Amino acid sequence: MDNETLEDCRAVYLTAEDLRIAASILYNAYHDDPFFVDSLFTSDKAAYEQKLRAAIREELNTLWQQKQALIGLFDHERLVGLACVVTQEVPLGEGRYWHWRLKMLLGTGWQSTQALMKKESSIVELLPSKHCGILQFIALAPNEQHKGLGHKLVQAVVSWCDEQPDLDGIGVFVAQESHLQLFTQHDFVSLGDLTIGSVHGQLLFYSVQQDDSLL
């Protein structure tokens, strides 16, 4: 993708009308994600894919209802990527609301729901304060990858983070080397190794940049 096309992309909040396409992008991006494979897959590929769709759909709808940051990257009017940040202003991990647990239980099963909550609890425990967020999802449409848009999307996330007065930073669990390289290029640093289920990775953290002119 050339520089002119990159400049045409804009990052804005998703609307309710964008959620269906957003869920499709996330499904394709996370289909082979080590954590979801470990948490949702048994021996039936069709059942795994059904669980993954249900988990993504429920989580995306929940983040929308809880007014969390759903940042879309658009090429003109076309959604090409998105990032979803959840803050500790809403209950996470073992503190998840009962109606979220029930819907996730119906869609993915008991063990998968427990694994999803365990992941969040493991991340929250390592975050430096209670005023931090988690980058829950970040994805590009399949035909938009390897064009430089990943950097554009991560930059939109950190720019959003810097504008939040009550946020100290955001954490993200990374289990793939290519993702590690992407985030570290945007000032994410490792808080240490983290194993969730049978998946080994690192918890990366972006600390909000203080505006010296306001100090």
TrEMBL record:
Pfam families: Acetyltransf_1 (PF00583). Keywords: Transferase. GO terms for molecular function: acyltransferase activity, transferring groups other than amino-acyl groups. Transmembrane segments: none annotated. Gene3D superfamilies: 3.40.630.30. Residues 67-170 form the N-acetyltransferase domain. InterPro entries: Acyl_CoA_acyltransferase, GNAT_dom. This is GCN5-related N-acetyltransferase. It comes from Shewanella baltica (strain OS155 / ATCC BAA-1091).
